[in-house]
Amino acid sequence: MIRAYGQDMRDPDAPRLPSSPGFWRSPLRGPWFTSVLGLVLLAGITVLFVTGLVSYAAYNPDLSPVNDKTPDKGILGFYLFAWPTHPHWLYRLNQGVHVTLGITLIPVLLAKLWSVIPRLFALPPARSLTHALERISLLLLVGGALFEFVTGVLNVQLDYVFPGSFYPLHFYGAWVFFAAFVAHVLLKLPTALRNLRQLRHPGEEQNDLVTPRPAEPTVSRRGALWFVGGGSLLLFVTTAGQNFDGALRRTALLAPHGGGEPGSGPNGFQINKTAAYAGISAAERGEDAWRLVVTGRTGTVRLSRAQLAELPLHSSALPIACVEGWSTSDQWWRGVRLRDLAALVGYDADDRPDVFVESLQRRGAFRSAALRANQVADPRSLLALYVNGEELSPDHGHPARIIVPAAPGVLNTKWVARMTFGDL
User: Fold this and answer.
1) For all residues of the chain together, what is the average pLDDT?
2) Which end of the chain is less packed: N or C, by CB atoms within 10 Å?
């Protein structure tokens, strides 16, 4: 028997158009199968949306002129707030959940889209205003889901290939997708409730997803769910390890920073970009050339690395946690407290300012970063000169880098050149 898209080519009466009820012949499709997948996605996508928004609140990106990095400003930035510094592993947990869950849900999403594909071809396109709204929300939902998952995976796995910055595209795409998601859930809620009542009797189904010409089944619906769940479990096992320490890191085969540590010694832990990639030469990092420029209320101070090392030094045990989902274990950093640098330019203990940090970096995103007053005030926030008892390596930010508890890695600026204290 020869079939194409579920059609028996030897049957002259077989439907030839995807819009025909009998064109899609899989006996797996039906409200029970779709509802189970939908329940998983309803919970999972809600968590993804919340952790994604929290991630944007954590690093306050400069999304656009109408939605800047300042808390309480911008059309879609109304929820932004001063990101806390306690507990110090907060961003590591949030972004680990966001990225790992997103990758784990890919088989569920694909199975869900497969289960409802007949509805994408249903005719007429709209039978009523409610049906038209439902179809529009469905198109935005499918398109938004594919866009968010594809751009997210590409950002995690590869050098980003889409035009424009990943961060605003993913951020605004998430709002479009979630608006369609909420509209679709509200419009389909009565149907979803009816389908839930059929969960105990998956064989007693009648709706537009159930084909009138079922093909011979090769697997049961529960077997198909086990297959989808097995795919999700495989992705989870081969991704989640990038968020842990020790031997578990070696299980992260599908994570770009998975496996063992990239080197040995005090500086032998994960990095996102090298000094060579950032376009930083050894000469400009040298003792004779490099100076840290600190500006604030009382003027400007220029400090060499040797002068920084003569200031009171403090230590903090903090991880690096990246927006891409990977993180390191706690590293032992030593350097000058940010609040002590603020004091050098006129700010006392009761008057902690924000700070704008600029890097020597020439290529790549996040050549500068804004830190809030609560981050500057935290005694664990450092301009680090050493890590794990040794000077910073060039790839870890020599001659000096920022390290702040619970902050995304993109805010822990490497190769710091200038710090401007004051209200941002």
Assistant:
1) 84
2) N
All residues at 6 or more sequence positions from 314 whose CB lies less than 8 Å from its CB, including other chains = 334, 335, 336, 337, 379, 382
Instruction: At 191, list the tokens.
Output: 């149907």
Q: How far apart, in Å, are the Cα atoms of 374 and each of 71, 168, 379, 400, 406?
A: 13, 25, 10, 21, 12
CA 344/CA 300 separation, integer angstroms: 9
The helix or strand, by DSSP H or E, that contains position 176, with its residue range, turns out to be helix 166-196
Residue 146: Cβ within 10 Å count: 14
Question: Measured between alpha carbons, how far is 338 from 221 in angstroms, rounded to an integer?
Answer: 58
Alpha-carbon span 203 to 210, nearest angstrom? 10
How many CB atoms are closer than 10 A to CB 164? 8
pLDDT of 110 strictly over 60: yes
Report the distance separating Cα 417 and Cα 182, nearest Å: 45
CB 71 within 8 A of CB 60: yes
Given 3-state DSSP classes, what are the helix, strand and coil percentages for the chain, each rounded to the nearest 5? 40, 15, 45
- Do 55 and 101 meet the contact criterion of CB atoms below 8 Å apart? no
User: Element (H or E) spanning 158, and its range?
Assistant: none
The tens digit of pLDDT for each residue in 228-244 reads 999 999 999 999 988 88
* Least confident interval from 49-53, 71-75, 109-113: 71-75
Q: Distance (Å, rounded) from C-alpha 351 to C-alpha 28?
A: 65
**Farthest-apart Cα atoms in the chain, separation:** 88
* CA atoms of 100 and 44, how far apart (whole Å): 11
Encoding tokens for residue 139?
């198109």
* Residue 51 exposure: Cα atoms within 13 Å on the Cβ side: 22
Strand order in the sheet with 416-421: 299-303, 292-296, 416-421, 355-359, 368-371
How crowded is residue 283: how many other Cβ atoms within 10 Å of its Cβ? 9
Angle at 95 between CA 412 and CA 36, to 5 degrees: 170
Contact of 391 with 385, CB cutoff 8 Å: yes
CA distance linking residue 45 with residue 7, whole number of Å:
34
Considering the four listed CATH numbers 3.40.50.300, 3.90.420.10, 3.40.50.10230, 3.40.50.620, the one that applies to the domain covering 275-421 is 3.90.420.10
Question: 4 falls in which pLDDT band (50, 70, 90)?
Answer: very low
